[in-house]
Amino acid sequence: MTKDNSPLVLGSEPIGKLLMKYALPAIIAMTATSLYNIADSIFIGHGVGALAISGLAITFPLMNLAAAFGSLVGVGASTLISVKLGQKDYENANKVLGNVLILNVIIGALFTLFALIFLDPMLYFFGASEHTIPYARDFMQIILIGNIITHMYLGLNAVLRSVGYPKLAMYTTLLSVVFNCVLNPLFIFGFGWGIKGSAIATVISQVLSLAVQLIHFANPKQLIRFRTGIFSLRKDIVQGILSIGMSPFLMNLCSCLIVLLINRGLKTYGGDMAIGAYGIVNRVLFLFVMIIMGLNQGMQPIAGYNYGARLYQRVTGVTLLTTYWATGVATLGFLLCQLLPEYIVGMFTSDPELVDTAVNGLRIAFLVFPIIGIQMVSTNFFLSIGMAKKAIFLSLTRQLIFLIPFLIILPQYFGALGVWISLPSADFISTIVTLIVIIRQFATFKQLNAAEIKDNH
Predict the structure, then answer these.
(1) Which positions carry the signal peptide feature in this UniProt record (predicted)?
(2) Residues ≥6 apart with Cβ < 8 Å to 252
């Protein structure tokens, strides 16, 4: 391991330089992934049809459910490794790596088996109709067959960032994206495989990226690597991974429930085209959310290491800097979606009904988007330092406490409009709660930092 790739620099290099070093590769990777998802929807919209976009949107809750189990292991393990490295506990950091691999295989296999058995009932429950379920089923059957690959790929990518290789994590993601973008139109248009071709391209691309990750961690020169004795599950490590990963797990689980409520509400009050409109809005929304998540991924090892090393001022510094950058990204998304919604939606479809519905939805969904960065970064901050309970609380305030009640109540009075306005309403209220919690935590860090300085003197 070179000096630049050593995790030890996380406690000494300037915060701004470190955040740029770690976040930029993650942002590029996350943006590329999101752009691929957008391109995927564009290929499906123009190559298969408007109903196929609606069918793809039906799969979002199930995809969120799969992501929930993936993040349960990946996020928990990467945070735990960062803290172990900050404590210079390299032996247990390696054991975490081995447990990541085993847990991903077990959880991925169980999820795949369950979802394939109950696929059709789940899709109907998520809002599918007789017109859209063939597209949703064709897509998800193939995605689920490759689910173990997806879990391992995402989990090891999170570990790569934590052990000082953010650029390699970026390259593995870009490798997957590039092959996806090449294979997708080939399979959809060239081979005529339709929406199945998109799913096949996704799985093949992730297999290639996973191979690169496995080669890296098999290298005996790496500080954190595969070695004998790390592939048996250890109760303390599994509990640590799952307790920290519980927050993103619940966030994704709530996301599953939220998309379910959105799809069912839009189906009831707007029909299949309204669900397709949300599919488009969701893709655009996630472009900016993924960029902020890239910033969060860059912040995570820095905050985790310095918290483990009890350098509280650096933890506060990197969190504030990440929040500033995230707010800038969110503001850009707000401006583009308020000023150019017709152009954005027009990239996905030319269907007049779908365009009109998606344009209105896009404007409403992004109404208070500039403040969303505060909520996202603060939740990730608590995850990064292992304060899982606070992270869970913040993630649930937006989704469980505010958004879900809005999605249940408002459509009864405002129809489909009530579904759309629920999104910015929950964002606004939950951000106020988040500000209160994060300010109190920074005050605690200030006291701890003062105590550290006093003890050193």
Answers:
(1) none
(2) 64, 65, 67, 68, 71
Question: In the structure encoding, which two tokens stand for residue 371, read together?
Answer: 């403040």
Residue 248 lies in a domain: yes
Q: Quote the DSSP letter at residue 340.
A: S
Sequential DSSP letters for 353-395: HHHHHHHHHHHHHTTTGGGHHHHHHHHHHHHHTT-HHHHHHHH
Q: What is the pLDDT along the chain (457 residues), one digit of tens a residue?
A: 445 555 556 777 888 888 888 888 778 877 887 887 788 788 888 777 778 888 888 888 888 788 778 778 888 888 888 778 777 777 878 888 888 888 889 988 999 999 999 999 999 988 888 888 999 999 999 999 999 998 888 888 888 878 878 788 888 888 988 898 889 889 988 888 888 998 999 899 999 999 999 998 888 887 777 887 788 788 888 888 888 888 778 777 877 888 888 988 998 898 888 988 998 998 899 889 989 988 988 888 888 888 877 787 888 888 899 999 999 999 999 999 999 999 999 888 888 888 999 999 999 999 999 999 998 999 888 877 878 778 878 877 877 789 989 999 999 999 999 999 999 999 999 999 999 988 888 888 788 766 666 666 5
In a domain, 386, yes or no: yes
Give the helix ranges, DSSP H, for 309-348: 312-339, 341-346
For the beta carbon of residue 440, count every other beta carbon within 10 angstroms: 10
Inside any domain, residue 314? yes
Buried b (16+ CB within 10 A) or exposed e, 387-423: bbebbbbbbbbbbbebbbebbeebbeeebbbbbbbbb
Q: Is the pTM of this model over 0.85?
A: no
In whole angstroms, give the CA distance from residue 292 to residue 198. Answer: 26
Of 395, 283, 285, the closest CA to residue 334 belongs to 285
Rounded distance between C-alpha atoms, residue 86 and residue 429, angstroms: 35
Q: Which two tokens stand for residue 442?
A: 């920074």
- Cα 50 to Cα 123, 135, 425: the distances in Å are 18, 11, 29
**Contact (CB, 8 A) for 273 and 419:** no
**What domain range includes position 16?**
7-456
Q: Is 2 within a domain?
A: no
Q: Residue 271 to residues 127, 140, 151, 354, 443: CA-CA distances in angstroms?
A: 10, 22, 33, 11, 49
Domain count, the chain: 1
Sign of CA dihedral 426, 427, 428, 430: positive
**Distance (Å, whole) CA 297 – CA 304:** 11
